[in-house]
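Chapter summary example.
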Amino acid sequence: MPVITISRQFGSGGSEVAARVAESLGWTLLDNAFVEKVAQGLHATPAHVQAIEERVPSLAERIADAFAFGASEIVSAPMHTPLPPTEERLLEVTRHVIHEAVARGPVVLVGRGAQASLASRADAIHALCCAPEDALVARVQARDGTAADEARHRVREMNRRRETYVRRYWHRNWLAATNYDLCLNTSSLGIDGASDAIVRAARARGW
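The structure predicted for these 207 residues follows.
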């Protein structure tokens, strides 16, 4: 089944782009529902899953996780097994949710390293929504009503976490253009322009 992954810098409006792409193509969108599905697989709350995703574990914590849950144990454990929601368990269940979503039908996947997890698929379009930092900050300010300094801090911190997530698990440079079929500057293209470009690319493949 064809799939579109949309990675996005925090403040780029990538989630809005994804929603419009899914609507235009009539495909399933997995965005905020992504966290909820992962949480179901972990028997945890969405807030707990987000807390695990948004923190960088210490070396000691990562070693402890490795000893507590060996790789073979994690992979072989059924999705319904109520293991403690560690970072490693989170990654395994996230991969399961991604591949389950793709198997069920055409889907637009937002974030969660989907572009790396599905990098080898020939029936995938990988898009990156990005923008200059000042544009990211301005969007966060307008959306959340925060001061410029606070918005800039959030933009830098959230994007640092996303870069760390992709580098840690897939050993990739998150923002490298070679990881994507489309790199879209939402500051110059706008949300409509970026979503239209992705839809045109999908339709050019006969989707």
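To summarize the output: The chain has two domains: 1-27+107-207, 31-104.
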